[in-house]
Specification:
This protein has 97 residues and is an all-alpha fold. It is built from 5 helices and no strands.
């Protein structure tokens, strides 16, 4: 039961980040060629690696390529927003280990 809950939570986090990519506009320090949501959408290729229980033990070339195109501030701001979502929804804070 705990493993299934963890898998669903992790999959939900991937979906949340993808949703944030589609809806969030962030201020960028150095005006990259693409806007933040477009950059984050490219991370869909990383989904097989980040979902717990996946047989993929390393990101594929498409994931690594997408990661190199993301502005540091864009990724950090998205993770900050995602980490605040449980509290905003009156849920317990995430404890990742």
């Amino acid at each position: 039961m705990a493993v299934a809950k963890f898998l669903y939570s992790s999959a939900a986090l991937v979906l949340v980040i993808t949703a944030l990519a589609a809806q969030t506009m962030t201020v960028r320090a150095q005006a990259p060629a693409q806007d933040c949501p477009t950059q984050l959408t490219g991370l869909n290729s990383c989904a097989p690696f980040v979902v717990p229980g996946s047989p993929d033990t390393a990101p594929n070339a498409a994931c690594c390529s997408a990661l190199t195109t993301i502005d540091h501030g864009c990724l950090c701001n998205t993770l900050r927003v995602a980490s605040r979502m449980p509290a905003a929804c009156n849920l317990p804070a995430l404890t990742c280990g």
